[in-house]
Amino acid sequence: MPDQITSAPLTATPLAGTDPALGAALAAARLPVADLAEPGSQFFTFALPESAGRLYGGIMLLEGHALLRSILVPEGQRRAGLGSAVLAALIEAAKAAGAQDLWALSPAAAAPFFTHRGFREVARYEAPQVVLHSRLAGLTCPISTVILTRAL
């Protein structure tokens, strides 16, 4: 994994899944934290150029596939293209790790974020079993979850 990945205007710096700030930020956003130390997980923090805020993102590498773990942009900084920049950096990290595709498990309301960025919705049976049986899917994947993918 490279020391940093730059996706204008952000630079991704790797951090451990056990980092307390990551866990606190995810918990505050009501996102799961039980799987942060899973093998194959890669997490990044992103410093914003003109503020003290931090963004977070992560992927899980699963037998040649990458599963989007999180994109966390603080409420007051949304709709400024930061989520797209984090996603671009995560796509580059997944490519660098040799993943052939990237998968996302999303609430229906957030699915358009992904479809506008090259993902397509798929039926549950089209997803690789390793994605469907990942710990993240077990923590966050009710039947109403939208499953999306894009080739890398």
From TrEMBL:
PROSITE patterns: GNAT
Pfam families named among the record's database cross-references: Acetyltransf_1
GO molecular function: acyltransferase activity, transferring groups other than amino-acyl groups
Keyword Transferase found: yes
Domain called N-acetyltransferase: residue spans: 5-142
Entry superkingdom: Bacteria
Keyword NAD included in the entry's annotation: no
UniProt keyword terms in alphabetical order: Transferase
Name of protein: Amino-acid N-acetyltransferase
